[in-house]
Amino acid sequence: MHRLIFSLFLVLCLGSNSMAQVQNDSLVALSHQFDFWLGEWDVYKTQTDTIVGDSFIESINDSTAIQEHYKAVGSPYKGTSLNKYNFLSGQWEQYWIDNGGLTLHLSGGLIDGKMVLENEMVYPQGKVTNRITWSYDDTSDTVRQVWEQGPDGETLQVVFDGTYKRKNN
Fold first, then answer.
1. Which residue ranges form the domains of the chain, and what is each CATH number?
2. Burial status of residue 169 (CB atoms within 10 A of its CB: 0-12, 13-18, 19 or more)
3. What is the DSSP letter of 50?
4. pTM value?
5. From CA 64, how far away is CA 66, in angstroms rounded?
6. pLDDT tens sequence across 98-149
7. What is the torsional sign of CA 30, 168, 137, 120?
8. Where are the alpha helices (DSSP H) in 1-151?
């Protein structure tokens, strides 16, 4: 929020078109931090040759958001996510839904070059923390996605560990 207010303040006070363009360019750059995930992928169980899914991630809404279309191999499971940088909160947000009834609303951002999004869900049995981390390996052009879950932000167990490998076109 402070970043947006500061950007607007600079533009209004300085009245400079070049300053406005610099501010706009840096804001646009934030909305492209997750572009490493764009593409058509085979999803493997990490460190195996077992394909567990098929994923198509595309840029939508004039490159202001990313949508994932995921389909499991060997089961009817599928889901989709919408991802965008929220300029007001200064964080990335993901809204995930699947055909099994799961809904996740995660938020976060880049930490040490990895996209880390998380949430806390409250159930009658207690709280559950979800943390999903995407890391891009430019040497192999792969993305690793690790989803951890647990009763708090400290004691998490891996519930999904997948490596996205680009499909050969």
1. 31-166 (2.40.128.20)
2. exposed
3. -
4. 0.84
5. 7
6. 999 999 999 999 999 999 999 999 989 889 999 999 999 999 999 999 999 9
7. positive
8. 2-14, 17-30
